[in-house]
Amino acid sequence: MFKGQVVMVTGAGQGIGKAIALRFAREGADIAVLDINRKTAEATAREVRDLARRASVKVADISVFKAVETAVHEVVEELERLDVLINNAGIEKRAPFLEITPTDWQRQLDVNLSGTFYCMQAAAREMAKRKYGRIVSLASVAGFMAPIDLTPYGVAKSGIIGLTRSMALELADYGITANAIAPGPIDTEMVRAAWSKEALEERANHLPIRRLGKTEEIARVALFLAAPESSYISGATLVVDGGSVAAGAYMVEKYRRRKAGQG
């Protein structure tokens, strides 16, 4: 589906970003791997090359605009074009609202929101030259529901949803679409490091579909939104969360019934 196209994936060293990069490579794309960690970025690039696709590795902190701009320019020079940007890089740091420090607040917004904007703008400037582009950003269900102990993260993800809408309007004349994915809990290295096996099993019972999502499931959605055939979809945020947002507060009652053996 993506033969001859170049796809840049930020935060592609592990987790959802890596799954997305490899899925696009299997569909024929050459991949630009952008990550702050060179070791994991190189590992992903090796797997891309094992699939007989070209891979370019760029190490950058996306909260620094000049670093992003340079990385995008170098990718275009090396791989001759840029067709798709997947904004996946992000961070989180948990803290109760009254204990969030100004430093932690600013760092999460710098990376998760400003960094996403910097990548969007730098990539769109290149795409506009060819009158074609697909930009897909990773938001979160935290952009729709208030997350516990993750206020800066939730605010940033809400901002990504707003950015996506603005870009859909601003960039339409350049043949560029902009969409977002809002994942629910996904089984990644980061999640497994933060939660015990028992806690993860308990967490799954709080979801209508009684399991965490898989990175491959997010990759398939990214593939769909970035496809040439998805040209009439722009400004949308697709929730991929096993029904959590749809269930809302009623999931509390569902969980109580499950615990009581009532279904």
Low-confidence runs:
none
Our Rg estimate from Cα atoms comes to 18 Å
- Which structural class is indicated by helix and strand composition? alpha/beta
Secondary-structure element order, as H and E?
A: EHEHEHEHEHEHHHEHH
Question: What is the first-to-last residue Cα distance?
Answer: 42 Å
β-strand percent reads 5-15%
Number of strands: 7
Number of helices: 10
Q: Which word captures the global form?
A: globular
Overall average residue pLDDT: 94
Instruction: Tell me roughly what share of residues is in helical segments.
Output: 40-55%
Largest beta-sheet characterization: 7 strands, parallel
- How are strands sequenced across the largest beta sheet? 3-2-1-4-5-6-7
Describe the structure in your own words.
The protein has 263 residues and is of the alpha/beta class. Helices cover 49% and strands 14% of the residues. It is built from ten helices and seven strands. A seven-stranded parallel sheet has the order 3-2-1-4-5-6-7, with helices on both faces. Strand 5, helix 5 and strand 6 form a beta-alpha-beta unit. It is globular and about 60 Å long. The model has no long low-confidence stretch (mean pLDDT 94).
